[in-house]
Amino acid sequence: MITVRAPATSANLGSGFDVFGVALDRPADVIRVERADRTTIEITGVGSQYIPTDPEKNTVGAVVDALNAPARIEIDKGVRPASGLGSSAASAAGAAVALNELYDRGLSRKELVPIAAEGEAVVSGAAHADNVAPSILGGFTIATEQGVESVDADIPLVACLPEIAVSTRDAREVVPETASMEQLVKTVGNAATLAVGMCQSNPELVGQGMADPLVTPARAKLITGYDAVSTAAQQAGAIGVTVSGSGPSMLAVCHDDRRRDVATAMLDAFADVGVEARAYQTRVS
Ligand code: HSE
């Protein structure tokens, strides 16, 4: 039996829509695989009741097919489904790594990224690699049509998950179809600043570089209390705040000594608008 811990991830980071991602040091899924004649999937943990166990409908079914690796698969969910923290991606990524090892397929971590992305497409409708890439490679990742690049980074973060539902499909529908030259120039500048910040493990540059005039403002409207929570986080010391993935989680970048205050401020601000939430004091890992 092979056991793999697959970390939660946060995609986009504001200015890097569908391109940037980071692995978080918590929460995580744990995937166990054992060789079998036919594939079965057992799911426990947070939100497991909402996830199909039929391999045709589960994120790991396509991974099994791509690796020709039938197995008895146990998934212990630590990452809530529909959280904006890469829940389906964590399971697909963990299964890809575990099955590659179980069957000695010999694929590199980078080669496993498109395979896991196909698995994710089963549930999200599109094969984005911006969550599976960091879950497999760790650190900060840049996923483009040309492939995936990753760098180690150490950045303190708070991921705050409200008890509301935002579907990725709905969150993609509100993304503007066009951008002005001014918005484009701002976004490119911010994305470049963020990438340099990650390479230097510099929270100031990462926080500044998360600002995004295009996608985040449209998606913020889907998250009850977004503006108040963002303001509260910044007053408590967050350098940058954005939507994590397609939401509803919000991601704040800060210095280590502000993490607890930022987490408390975000929870309080959600509570003020009647929304229960949970905060993870985490970091890029
Ligand atoms: N980049 C994707 C999005 C991540 O924001 O829609 C969610 O799958």
TrEMBL record:
Positions of the GHMP kinase C-terminal domain: 197-270
Name of protein: Homoserine kinase
EC number in record: 2.7.1.39
Substrates-to-products reaction catalysed: L-homoserine + ATP = O-phospho-L-homoserine + ADP + H(+)
Lineage: Archaea, Methanobacteriati, Methanobacteriota, Stenosarchaea group, Halobacteria
Annotated GHMP kinase N-terminal domain residues: 60-139
Annotated function: Catalyzes the ATP-dependent phosphorylation of L-homoserine to L-homoserine phosphate.
Main location: cytoplasm
Keywords (A to Z) from UniProt: Amino-acid biosynthesis, ATP-binding, Cytoplasm, Kinase, Nucleotide-binding, Threonine biosynthesis, Transferase
NCBIfam families associated with the record: PRK01212.1-4 (NF002288), thrB (TIGR00191)
Entry binding sites for ATP: 80-90
Organism: Halohasta litchfieldiae
GO cellular component: cytoplasm
Domain of life assignment: Archaea
GO biological process, alphabetically ordered: threonine biosynthetic process
An example molecular function term from Gene Ontology annotations: homoserine kinase activity
